Amino acid sequence: MFHFKLSKAVKLIILLLLLLVFAILYLQPVLYMISLSFKSLSDIVDPSTRWIPNNPTLSNIEYALGQMRIIPMMLDGRGLWDNLTTSTLFVSLVTAIPAAIAQLFACAIAGYAFGRCQFPFKRLMIVLLILTYVIPPQTVFIPVAWLNNQLGFLNSPLAFIVPSLLGHGLNGGLFVIIYMQFFRKIPKELEEAALIDGANPYTVFMKIIFPLAKPAMIVVFLFSLVWHWNETFLAGIYYSRISTLATQITQVNIMPQEQTQALMPAIMASGLLFITPILIVYIFTQRFFTESIERTGVVE
Amino acid sequence: MKIETRNKIIGISFISLWAVGFLVFWVFPLIFSFFMSLNHVAIQTDRLVFDFVGFDQYHKALFRDAEIPNVSLQFFAQSLIIIPVIVVFALIIALMLNQRFPGRGFARAIFFLPVVLTSGNLINELTNQQQGTLSFLQTATVTNLVLTLPDTWALALTNVLNSFLMVLWYSGVQMLILIAGMQSINPSVYEAAKIDGANDWASLWLITLPGITPFIFISVVYTVVDQFTSPFNPILEVILRHFREPDTGYGYATAIAWLYFAIILAILVVVTLIFRKPLGLKKK
Fold it and tell me: Where are the domains of chain A?
């Protein structure tokens, strides 16, 4: 076996080198996307231009802005909402943000019930909760789409927001489990003291328990936001007249190719437009992502 | 009122919102979807017309539709390769990121970045651009090696290799779970082992890996669920196509979806059985 001893410094250097190699492999697709987005036609045909374009251009981005339908078409004779939802960026925002906020609250209430309260058939319900995470959306999407049609939620963010308000929605099961695990670890004395003082249980939850769950809230909100932003399967089913940034990317792919515009850089530029908002969010919040699971103690 | 009754009423009030949602968005769709899978569903302008056919559509999907066994065998072969690759890779990176070194926060930020970027359509575009391939995996030796395998496996392996980096992009959350697991191990255990003369290699196998077994289990479950709803999933495409095709329609699409769900459950049961022993031993 390993009888030779490596000094600490050598070990550190090997570790850093390995991480560097993996980091480059990891980031390569993103860097490629950024690079290609700014390449002009001459850069694409020139094999010596690998990463940094010689003649950087914004034409791909401009083309993608049009194809991705980011700017709303404001037409007279249509309501403000109909006009605004012609913008994929607007649809993405009004889907992801309210749904994430709804899950932040509703999943916390359900998580508290599962983690701290007593009610009939609780063990069975916990099994069902885990099942909701495991059942693929493919199995239920047709009836759910039918239901949304009956309720008039198709082509409206309500299709995502209403299930979220009830503690379900995209990966809702997982979020409830996160809260459940978090609330289980809070000392019982906290509630008991307040309850003995005569406070009602709902006030105790709102004023004492829920504010303690900040680490779990941040995780749920950020993941919910990102997953709603990235969602393509359900968005493709629920939205037909409107579309989100994530579903619009495929439309760039099948657009007729203009003579002056190479298709691949246009697709990559569209991808870049799509990831930029989420990248900005990530830059400011990455600490919460990387520390998230340790903080919530989900995995215990 | 007895205190238990009171507590139960409070509990029911907290769970009621979720329970209503569960009835509306899970119980009803599951029953309706199972009912549809037993029927041939025709879509009229304003309603659905059901024609009861029993389990015929299941029979068709399993034995008469040549496409489905082909597609699913291929996909399951691919998953069988991908899932361990993702978990092992996440484990290796997590072990590295768990060491002490300058810039660790920054390194973690990079390796976790793909989690916010894994959107189905984006990944497909990047894969189409060959942006997932590792050039050394496409050399003649590797290709020849792959071609010695039976067809299904060869094709599956080629697919995995061709999108290798994209596969790795699916390991972010697992990495986090495993790092959290590693940090739950008491540092004094390592110190004690060191005093007894254990080197890093021995500590890894005798302390770290047994200590994080439950976390590896969670990672595997997460990976299975994640993979089976991923954009690489060809069965999903088959379901969607039948969903849009009036001929076969909702009924056939849901029948396939139920079979698919049954298989996922079976896989999760197998995973749990594999981990039962190490998990059980830990409890003693």
Answer: 8-67, 80-254
